[in-house]
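B., you asked whether I could sanity-check this one before it goes into the benchmark set. Here's the sequence:
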Amino acid sequence: MKRPNLEKIPPVAGSSFYVTSHKAPLLCHTDFWHFHPEFEIVYVPHGDGKRFVGDRMTRFSGGDLVLLGPNIPHNAFNFGFESPEYEEIVVQFKSATAGEIAGIFPEFQSIAALLDRARAGVAFHGEAKHRVGGMIREMAGLNGFHRLLKLFEVLWELSAVATTEDLDAVGFLSMSPVHTGRIAKVYQLIQADFHRELSTREVARKLAMTESSFCRFFRGATGNTFKTALTEVRIRKASALLLHSDVPVSRVAVQTGFNNISLFNRTFKKIMGQTPGQYRRAALLN
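And here's what the prediction gave me:
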C-alpha cells in the first residue's frame, strides 16, 4: 500500500467533531492520498465518478454516501469525480464519541455495531443515500448540542440501512505520536516541492537533523526510504494529470519531477502496473 499523508483534523471550539461543506465547480480532481484517526462520513449529493479507498477503486453514480473508519487511506472524494459541479458535506469524529457511549446507553448498540463494521469502510445505496444525506446537509447549519443530536440521528439511520456495500479497506497503522509530527512535516515538504530536486540533506536540515539520522528515522517510521516516498507522491500527481488533463505524457513527466521520460515510464509502470499511456487509455474506457 502506498504511504498516505497524515491529515490533522482541526479542533473546533465547543464541539467534539468537525463538519464542513464544499461546493465549487472548479474543486474537482484534487489528488490528496491521506489518512486520519477520526471516523469520516462523506456525502456527495449528485454526480458520478470513482472513489479511491484503501487499495480499491470503485465507482459511484447519482451521488455517494460513505462511512470510513479510522486510519483508512483514501483520496480526496473530488478526485475521480466526473460530473460538472462538485459538492460534498464531510463529518469527522473521534471513535470514542459514539462508540464508547454504547456501554452506557443500550440504545447505541446498533451504532456501535455500525462503527465496528465501518472500520473497513461502508458505502450506502438506495433511497437512504439521499434521505440520510439530507440530514447530513442539515448538520452544516446547526451548532452545539443540536448538531451533536443530529450526528447521533444520522448514525442511527445509517445503522438501519439495508442496501450497503462493504469497501473492505485495510487501515493504515499510523506511527507513534513522537514520530507523527516529523513525518507529517516531511510529507508537507514533499507535497510542496515534488516537482523539483528535493534531497535528503535539504529535508534533514529543515527538520534540524543530520542527513544520516533523518534517513534512519524516516525508514524506521514509515518502512520506506525518502526517495521511495518522494517517487510515490510524484507518481500519484502524474496519475491525476493523466486522468484529468490532456497534457502530453512527456510534459506530465517534467511537471512531476522526472526529467527523463524513459525513467518516468519505467517508474510509473513499476508502481501502477501500466505505462502512462496505458493508464490514460484504460481510464477513458471506464
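One thing to flag: Residues 177-285 form a domain with the Arc Repressor Mutant, subunit A fold (CATH 1.10.10.60). Otherwise nothing jumped out at me.
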